[in-house]
Specification:
This protein is mostly beta strands. The chain is built from one helix and eight strands.
Length: 150
């Protein structure tokens, strides 16, 4: 009887946790086209989460990277992300990092960096590239979003 009561309580708790909705401001991550370097395939990804600075709406623009190792050995991978406003903006470095990707495995999306911007009717873009140990830097993998879409 005691175990049944504990089981009922745990089940109710689990259902409550599952029923709690995510916040409306939660950001979706969208990934762009892929590129590769050696045995590492790379995708750049972006999200734009709602926020505010006083009464001004903002977006937290975050760059991510996905990496997939297609080879038979694990590799260390270095990566960088850059950000710009498409109309007339210049590229700004958001961040960089390193990770280990096991043979035949994928990692990500890993957050590389972010920038908080006051909303404007502009399109923003990120680009990422990566370099496996002993390989050259990959080409750029871009991803874009409207900064203040509804």
């Amino acid at each position: 009887m005691y175990l049944r009561r504990i089981g009922t309580i745990l089940a109710a708790t689990a259902l409550t946790v599952l029923a709690v909705p995510a916040t409306a401001d939660a950001a979706a991550i969208a990934c762009g086209g892929g590129t590769s370097t050696g045995r590492i395939a790379v995708n750049g990804c972006i999200s734009a989460e709602r926020g505010s600075a006083g009464r001004f709406p903002t977006r937290e623009i975050t760059a991510y990277i996905k990496a997939r190792n297609t080879g038979p050995k694990g590799l260390n991978v270095a990566y960088e992300a850059f950000f710009r406003v498409v109309d007339g903006g210049h590229w700004e470095k958001l961040g960089s990092g390193r990770t280990y990707v096991r043979a035949g495995d994928s990692v990500g999306p890993l957050e590389v960096g972010s920038s908080t911007r006051v909303c404007g009717p502009v399109k923003v873009e990120i680009r990422v590239h990566a370099k496996a140990d002993g390989a050259a830097w990959s080409g750029w993998s871009p991803a874009a979003t409207r900064q203040c879409q509804t």
